Amino acid sequence: MQNLRNNVTASAVRPYLAALLLGAAMVLGYAPFYVFLIPVVALAGLFKLVLLQSTARQAALVAFCFGLGKFGTGVAWIYVSLHVYGGMSAVLAIVFTAAFCAFLALFVALFGTLAWYVRGVRPAIFIFTLASLWVASEWLRGVLLTGFPWLAVGYSQVADSPLFGYAPIIGVYGISGLVAATAAAVWRPTAGAFSAKLRIVAFWCLVWMGGALLAKVPWTAPFEAPFEVSLLQGNVSQDKKWQEDEAAITLATYLSLLKKSKGKLIVMPETALPMISDELPTNYVTSVASLMKSRQADLIVGIIERARDSHHVRLYNSAINIGISSPQVYRKKHLVPFGEYIPAKPLFGWVLNFLQIPLTDLSPGPAISQPLDLQGTKVGINICFEDAFGEEIITAIPDTTLLVNMSNLAWFGDTNALPQHLQIGQMRAAEAGRYMLSVANTGITAIINERGQILLQAPSRQVFVLSGSVQKFTGTTPYAYFGNMPILLFSMLGVSFSLRQGWKRGRRSMRKGRPGMSSNSGQSRFDLASAPSTATIN
């Protein structure tokens, strides 16, 4: 009897453990690993586990475990920013990191709940619905409470995957949908097995070979001659960055890098100069301006800007220019909660008691900003976390001819946050059909072309000047023109269908006198016909 009880317990736990492990394996699909087929396999396993559960609640819990595995391994670097550089105790940092990962996993649980209701529908509708539900969950995670779209499945296809060819057309969420669709296609009809297999193979070939062919299409066009840029990587440690006695060393480091630079356009990272703009030494600004004008060059500087009007004094995370072009400014508009501002401060201001993060009272810049006109180039600036939001980057297209991301990733040490961020920059470049200059304080600093390919890359955690030739581009990709709207419409159809299925199943269950349970009618069309109430991956 005891053995039987142990076997039952193990059988009950097994699907949740399997989901956790599958989610953890997902991280191998992203940088720096780039095994782009793993997310397809992992999602196929998740779909199987979800669909074999006997209730929607169990399906949600299985999906939640998958999300815990994915985000627990994929964004664990949050702990470094909280504990190592934010001053939070190790125990509290673990609790906050775990709570954050659990919050992100709720979106996967929502997917699992809705996906469970579409068991037994026809294969084409099944594939369409699961893909659209997955996209809906990712999009919601990317917008709710200012959004955290990090590790959307589409990013796992950056670099060598044929699906990356779809980036200029449907963006990262569209690619997520294609990954989910090809994973869902594993669950083919049992009737007419041979013809069903042929249809699945044809579907895979159409999707994956189509991406490879689309990657060759020139969606945007180069114009004028290439020109030289220099990207400055100061490698200033976060624990020293805002210390007063270190400020002079940082200023000297960047002045030395400027003198070694040869580009007509030179870019420093986010908050490269660790002081408020109006506190910069006058002689330092004069020296930099004279150097730039003598070379007929322009410098973009990341700095905290203090702006005054008749009523307020505000601080902005800004990019300003020094050189031969007229003074211009870009102010970061998508701020990081708890890092750059405190949301609902009366409720959450207490968090500051556990953190030692400077400048947590910044103001957002305008929602719509114009590119900087430098060296005859329209430079679209985005700062740090902003490049995770593709729909915001494309607002300045087609006016923008070159994209620049300025970051300070020293907050995350030498973790996977750095290559993951660069991978996001590759996606943004391909979506917009523009070169992207990724300039980071400690790395990874790189020049990315309009197809999302890394042309040059600086070594991380080193003081470095990365110089290279870049090309201006004009024109508009389909994604830059339509944005996420087609994908959102696609997702809404799937969500509506799933809710309708859930309502119908609920009514059937009520008529049978079993509230909360769903009919299994229609399961025989899939390999779910003889499924137990819980499942393992065979």
Notes on the structure:
The chain is an alpha/beta fold and 538 residues long. The chain contains 16 helices and 14 strands. The strands form three sheets. It has a six-stranded mixed sheet. The chain has a six-stranded mixed sheet with strand order 7-8-9-10-11-12, with helices on one face. Helix 11 links the parallel strand 3 and strand 4. The longest helix is centred in the N-terminal third of the chain and has 27 residues. The two termini are 26 Å apart. The C terminus is likely disordered.
In which range does the helix fraction lie? 40-55%
| Class computed from helices, strands and strand pairing | alpha/beta
Largest sheet: 6 strands, mixed
Treating each run of at least 4 consecutive H or I residues as one helix, how many helices?
Answer: 16
**Content of β-strand:** 5-15%
Poorly predicted runs of 5 or more residues? 515-538
Radius of gyration equals 25 Å
Strand tally is 14
What is the overall silhouette? globular
Strand order of the largest sheet: 6-5-4-3-2-13
The H/E string reads: HHHHHHHHEEHHEHEEEHEEHEHEEEEEHH
Distance between the termini: 26 Å
Report the mean per-residue pLDDT as an integer: 87
